[in-house]
Specification:
Length: 108
């Protein structure tokens, strides 16, 4: 089990990669990262983090879990639920993404 919130968006977090369509862009950003995790694409997830600067604070734990499943054929997963605090508070100038996922060993 790994626990992590996803992108921390806003000036207080030092991460403002876009200033328009924040709800849509934040969801796209987080779900793009989640897509790499769900696909078991460890290298792609690393490239995603490097290219976007996404502030996923549990990225190291996520990568460790994915790497631990590599010897047995790799990992795959799926997004169970996604939201962010802006959806709940209406304040997208300072919000955090949350993504529940299942990550498991690929069927051989």
């Amino acid at each position: 089990m790994v626990s992590s919130d996803f992108t921390h968006y806003g000036a207080d977090f030092g991460y403002v990669p876009f200033r328009t369509d924040i709800p849509e862009n934040l969801s796209k950003l987080d779900l793009a990262g989640a897509g790499h995790i769900a696909a078991g694409d460890l290298d792609g997830f690393g490239r995603f983090l490097a290219s976007t600067g996404a502030t996923i604070c549990g990225a190291a734990g996520i990568k460790l879990a994915m790497a631990a499943l590599e010897p047995g054929g790799g990992s795959e997963g799926k997004v169970v639920c996604y939201t962010n605090s802006g959806i709940l508070t209406g304040d997208f100038s300072h919000c955090v993404g949350y993504c529940s996922m299942l990550l498991y060993q690929k069927e051989m």
